[in-house]
Amino acid sequence: MSRRLDPLVALVRDGIRLIELGQPFFTGMPCSPNHPGFRMTLARRHGDLVRADGGSAANEIIVTGGHVGTHIDALSHVSHDGLLHGGIDAAAAQRGGRFTSHGAEHLPGFLRRGILLDIARLHDTETLPGGYEVTVADLEAAATAAGVAPEPGDVVLIRTGWARLFDDPAAYVGAAGGVPGVGVEAARWLAARGIVATGADTTAYERIPPGAGHSVLPVHRALLVDAGIYILEHLALEDLSSLGISEFVFVLAPLRIVGGTGSPVRPLAAVTR
Q1: Residue 245 CB: number of other CB atoms within 10 A?
Q2: Over the range 154-183, which residues count as b (16 or more CB within 10 Å of their CB) and which as e?
């Protein structure tokens, strides 16, 4: 008796291309001033211990904040007036050194439709200027140009072109010149369409005005606290843009960090070959 192959398995067998959507992790990489940076060093080197059969092993120690490099924010990451998403008391939830509500272990795995709204391409530029606010009009125009529209359950990625500055940490963080990003009204527009997550190729997702730093982040409140929508930051969207791909399968598996506020991740876009 023959067993019918699942259509999804058949599709993978016949050829799926995976496109990287995350940045590499390395000591000295750009990092928000609100978080401890990424550090890695070898704890054991080949030759430190050689076994009787001649074998040797190396390993590393990694120290990092949960919101460093390409990562996803859990709903415990931001509160407003003392409350997390759903009206949960933030102070009570964080007692004991970890969150008992909305911890990173509750972040879902993602196998969703992803769409790319390429705002830099919309404005015919490689990189939006520092401090540029992505508006509702920008999102609508980019969706129309790409022939896609955000729908319930989608993951929406916003390209500003800022990832081109990733190798220049000072410029990328944008303390002096600001960083382009989504404004509050644009975030609410996305939330109204029932998306489950959204991300961008910048350090804080939302607009950082020149000289203002990361002191006030109203879009985080609108998405995480008000709408319960996850945020992805430090994405690498240049390959997706250069290939002209606006619709894809978004794949992501966050680490299950019990009581954490976020997780480093390696997101992927799956497309047919």
Answers
A1: 18
A2: bbbbbbbbbbebbeeeebbbbeeebbbbbb
pLDDT surpassing 50 at residue 114:
yes
Helix (H, G, I), strand (E, B) or coil at 47: coil
> In the predicted model, is pLDDT for residue 1 greater than 60?
no
Q: Which SS3 state, helix, strand or coil, does residue 170 take?
A: helix
173: pLDDT strictly greater than 80: yes
**255, two tokens:** 């680490």
Q: Which two tokens stand for residue 31?
A: 């990092």
Predicted confidence (pLDDT) at residue 188 exceeds the cutoff of 50: yes
Q: How many CA atoms lie within 13 A of 115 on its CB side?
A: 21
What pLDDT, on the 0 to 100 scale, is given for residue 211?
Answer: 84
Alpha-carbon span 114 to 128, nearest angstrom: 22
Which residue is associated with the tokens 């527009």?
Answer: 189
For the record, the structure tokens of 270 come out as 């799956």
Which ranges in the chain belong to alpha helices (H)? Answer: 7-14, 90-93, 119-122, 136-146, 169-173, 184-192, 218-220, 238-242
